[in-house]
């Protein structure tokens, strides 16, 4: 190895360390509330918008880390284009599978503009649906062919509402349908 090659490698390594340090990490607690929801920290944990009452009785919002780790994504802030295409609200506190019961929401989520281009949001709702005993690709297929039937089947799934206990368990069987360009 020549001395110029060694110098180039050392310079490249030093620049990459510098760049990594200046770009920083995404830490949920440091994010502004208007980009918190649908973001993923550098640790891979999903960010959640939460509210709390101040001493004077006002409601304030803060961004915090959930315990849910997204296996295939980290350091990700969802684009406004995907938020709009999928019909989600960045200002909503918490995330619930209840949205899947709303035909307008499910239509937007299953629409190609969202379903094929917004893997973060699709992965989140895939896991929420799975927690309710519903396979999102099947729900989307039924939504396209018979929206009323899709809602009836979702409501009769028999699953009790509530959070998914371990998204990582559900993620293991997930997104074969998600785009490869994550």
Strand and helix order: HHEEEEHHHHHHH
The best one-word shape is globular
Q: So how many helices?
A: 9
Backbone CA Rg: 20 Å
Structural class: alpha+beta
Name the average pLDDT. Answer: 77
Overall helicity: 40-55%
Describe what you observe in this structure.
InterPro entries: PAR1. Residues 1-24 form the signal peptide. This is PAR1 protein. By secondary structure, this protein is of the alpha+beta class. It has one domain. Helices cover 45% and strands 13% of the residues. The protein contains nine helices and four strands. Strands 1-4 form a two-stranded antiparallel ribbon. It has a two-stranded antiparallel ribbon with strand order 2-3. A hairpin with a 5-residue loop joins strand 2 (45-53) and strand 3 (59-69). The protein is globular.
Describe the structure using short key phrases:
PAR1 protein, two-stranded antiparallel ribbon, signal, disordered C terminus, alpha+beta, single chain, two-stranded antiparallel sheet, 182 residues
Can you describe this structure in just a few lines?
Pfam families: PAR1 (PF06521). The chain is an alpha+beta fold and 182 residues long.
Summarize the helices and strands and which ones pair or pack:
Blueprint: H1 3-23, H2 33-36, E1 39-40, E2 45-53, E3 59-69, E4 76-77, H3 80-86, H4 103-110, H5 112-115, H6 119-131, H7 136-145, H8 147-155, H9 167-171
Antiparallel strand pairs: 1-4, 2-3
């Amino acid at each position: 190895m020549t001395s110029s090659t060694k110098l180039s490698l050392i310079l490249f390594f030093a620049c990459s360390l510098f760049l990594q340090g200046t770009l920083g990490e995404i830490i949920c607690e440091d994010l502004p509330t208007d980009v918190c929801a649908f973001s993923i920290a550098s640790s891979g944990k999903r960010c959640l918008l939460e509210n709390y009452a101040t001493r004077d009785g006002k409601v304030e919002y803060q961004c915090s880390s959930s315990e849910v780790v997204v296996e295939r994504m980290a350091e990700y802030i969802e684009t406004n284009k995907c938020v709009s295409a999928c019909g989600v609200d960045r200002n909503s506190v918490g995330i619930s599978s209840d949205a899947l019961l709303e035909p307008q929401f499910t239509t937007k989520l299953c629409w190609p503009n969202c379903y094929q281009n917004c893997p973060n949001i699709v992965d989140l709702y895939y896991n929420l649906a799975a927690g309710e005993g519903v396979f999102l690709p099947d729900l989307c297929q039924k939504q396209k062919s018979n929206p009323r039937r899709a809602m009836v089947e979702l409501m009769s799934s028999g699953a009790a509402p509530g959070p998914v206990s371990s998204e990582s368990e559900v993620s293991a069987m997930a997104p074969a349908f998600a785009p490869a360009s994550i």
